[in-house]
Amino acid sequence: MTLPPDTPDLTVSPGLLTDRYELTMLTSFVTDGSADHPAVFEAFARRLPEGRRYGVLGGLGRLLPMIERFTFGADEIAWLLGDGVINEATADYLRDFRFSGDIDAYPEGDLYFPGSPVFSVRCTLGEGVLLETLVLSVLNHDSAIASAAARMAVAAGGRPLVEMGSRRTHEEAAVAVARVAYVAGFASTSNLAAGRRHGVPTVGTAAHAFTLAHTSEVEAFRSQVAAQGVGTTLLVDTYDTAQGIRNAVEVAGTGLGAVRIDSGDLADEATAARRLLDELGATGTRITATSDIDEYVITALADAPIDGYGVGTRVATGSGHPTASMVYKLVAVADSPDGPLRPVAKKSHDKVSVGGRKTAYRSHDDGVLTGEWFVTDEAAPADATPVQVAAVRAGRTVHSPDLETVRAHCAAALATLPAEARSVSGGAPYLTVTSEATSPAPAEGATS
Q1: pTM score, two decimals?
Q2: What's the rounded Cα separation, in Å, for the pair 88 and 73?
Q3: What's the burial of 445, exposed, middle or buried (CB within 10 Å: 0-12/13-18/19+)?
Q4: Are strands 111-112 and 396-397 parallel, antiparallel or unpaired?
Q5: Residue 208 has what DSSP assignment?
């Protein structure tokens, strides 16, 4: 469809992916002359979702390029002026705006806990306030998905997971979901945009509609095998699962790649399917299960003869926790362009923050994470490992690992948790991060 010639181009830069009050605050800072004062902002989570023992940071690889492109075009500035969001002085400020500060962050795929300073921005007051909404939008969404996906991957115990939640979320969110689920341990996605844009392996064969479109299940299977080969996965539960399996082996032979079961009691269905496949001689045919899968279902199915899972709604919505609830706070500011930074902090009930720029460290014992804490000066503790990496310097990204490296880092980080902390059973956060080194929370049922 061709749009009328007077239709405005509503494509926006990352600069407008923000809340109005970021621009009204900036206007005040520009007006009172404080916009160029040095400042430090930090993103962190005060708490984890109920029962979660750890979080996984997601989205850094998406966020940093967006910060580099965080600008305001002439039409956007004109709209902000016309809508009364900014004044003329702020319009001048925005015309040449480019983020020019430094950012330190936890590597994407790393663990985080309550109080972990996962994203630290050193910049001017004006720059820092503009980034708040974008930082939280990306990190909250992607970290929620990464944390849920990691729990599912751990529960699967090496059995491959397919991310297939595209139809359960916004079309662009679906691409982010697929990317970060792969980071957290999923093997592939059904989303083609994630494959094209990020290099995530894509898979997919056929839905129930494909079977229903043919005169019989056998004809549907013949069509699919003719197009995709005997290594394909045949969906066998459109009518009767047992007969579907017989039809699948009749058409594809004993070399059939896999069958997919999408309904019923998955443990019972998979057990019956495995028995029947073996009786028919298809001993190498795999069984894939879908249908409202999450980390709890995967755990319950640990002993079932299931070779892989497809996960949709639950991973795309953070398995009941669609946000990581991170906040972004000013923690230090100078009172003049050349003045020293002074710590600032909220003291309001249940929303206390800690002032000062923080550097985080961890300790390990024989490869197991035993502590995480931060300091607010530059002195590095002895025998401790720094967590943050230099992500941006003078406005330019200096940390851009490829997706396979990020995925490997996530797997290595999860491996530093003891088994009880990786369990899907509810419990207190494994660590709480403060200015003092803290011990891990006791395991469920442990006594002190």
Answers
A1: 0.93
A2: 15
A3: exposed
A4: unpaired
A5: H
